[in-house]
Amino acid sequence: MITGKFPSLRLRRSRKNSWSRRLIEENNLSPNDFILPLFLIEGKNKKQPIKSMPGVYRYSLDKISHLIDKAINNGLPMIALFPNTDMKKKNFLGTEALNENNLVCRALQLIKKRFKNDIGIMCDVALDPYTSHGHDGLLDNNYVLNDETVDVLINQSILQAQMGCDVLAPSDMMDGRIGKIRKSLDKNGFKMTQILSYAVKYSSNFYGPFRDAVGSKGLLKGDKKNYQMDFRNSDEALREVALDIKEGADMVMVKPGLPYLDIIKSVKENFKIPVLAYQVSGEYSLLSNGINNKLINKDVILESLISFKRAGANAIVSYYADRLDKILD
Ligand code: PBG
Q1: Best substitution site from 152, 160, 202, 207 to test ligand 1's pocket, by max atoms within 8 Å of Cβ?
Q2: Which one of the listed residues 180, 255, 268, 309 is annotated catalytic?
Q3: Rounded CA gap, 203 and 193, in Å?
Q4: Contact 40, 82 (CB under 8 A)
Q5: What ligand 1 atom has the least distance to the C-alpha of 208?
Q6: Ranges of residues in the chain whose predicted pLDDT is under 50
Q7: Which residues contact 10 (CB under 8 A, 6 or more apart)?
Q8: How much is the pLDDT for 217?
């Protein structure tokens, strides 16, 4: 591999000038690499700050069009919708997930009508925005039931597909749901609706600010360790990905991002499938710490984002995706 030695070989030669560094750069970012998460809330004319995520807001539906306009103009390929459901609409079974008039369904219809296919829309498939206990599925004796939950997720998927969702993103970590959702989508005329599996979702301590944003934080009883992955494991991540590919996933997600670059890299090396990274809320909070929306540490943010590309991610879900003009060179 090494073809010479010092002093004839000097690696600093190619680092001397900016043009040369640019010439040999191995990785870079463009807006095509980003997915923008949007937090939705009921009401009118609302832009609610989220305390633990400076610079991120919850928006009422009448406020989202200009955000999406901007996202399209900036060249983002996709947005991801996350509802903050009214407390009084949450219940033990999370039935609001199947209400065709829920916040996500109304947002999907509005966005599709106005923006057609100018931007992709991704939606989480999971029950946590809708359950009174904050878990992603149906609870029985503090255990999240698998098969019964999958049955509900199938219906949630079909509903979201009907409303115009382009990419369904099951984020619940139930066994076997990708295959069952794929089959039901095909049977119901949604052959072209994509599935992005959160195949590798760790039971992480970095999700706190998100749970605050969607209003499930105070509700969550216990933790999600009996369905999300143990952060001590990496072989298991490859088993999860292998299964989801077999079941029909179009893309897979690794989540969280920065503490799991090793997983992104090994998924990419082992499977030739698009791999997305989720730079989660806790990572965002740490990187944004104390800067109150000013992005003074934009170089730190850029460096973190590039690391996802270096690890092999095809795209990144990032709460910075609406401020790329300030971050990318
Ligand atoms: C829940 C879901 C979570 C996130 C996205 N979807 C949290 C959780 O599993 O409790 C976290 C995202 C983030 O922290 O930014 N289905």
Answers
A1: 207
A2: 255
A3: 28
A4: yes
A5: 14
A6: none
A7: none
A8: 79
- Measured in angstroms, how far is the CA atom of residue 54 from the centroid of ligand 1? 18
Chain CA centroid to CA 219, Å = 22
Query: What is 30-327's CATH number?
Result: 3.20.20.70
Q: Is the CB of 136 under 6 A from ligand 1?
A: yes
The reported pLDDT for the residue numbered 33 is: 98
Q: Is 89 a catalytic residue?
A: no
What CA–CA distance (Å, rounded) separates 137 from 120?
26
Which protein residue has the closest C-alpha to ligand 1 atom 2? 171
Known active-site residue 201:
yes
Interval between CA 235 and ligand 1 midpoint (Å): 22
Angle between helices 298-311 and 281-288 (to 10 degrees): 140
96 lines ligand 1 (CB under 6 A): no
Ligand 1 centre distance from Cα of residue 76 (Å): 21
For residue 250, the CA-to-ligand 1 centroid distance in Å is 20
Q: What is the number of other CB atoms lying within 10 angstroms of the CB of residue 232?
A: 7
The answer to whether the pTM exceeds 0.85 is yes
Quote the CA–CA distance of 214 and 210 in Å, as a whole number: 6
Q: Give the pLDDT confidence of 118-162 residue by residue, as tens digits.
A: 999 999 999 999 999 999 999 999 999 999 999 999 999 999 999
> Which among 201, 224, 268, 309 is annotated as catalytic?
201
Of 79, 70, 95, which Cα lies nearest the Cα of 164? 79
Which residues partner with 251 through β-bridges? 196
Side chain identity at 292, as an amino acid letter? N
Contacts of 230 (CB under 8 A, 6+ apart): 202, 203, 236
Q: Which residue has the tokens 């997983």?
A: 263
d(CA 211, CA 141): 22
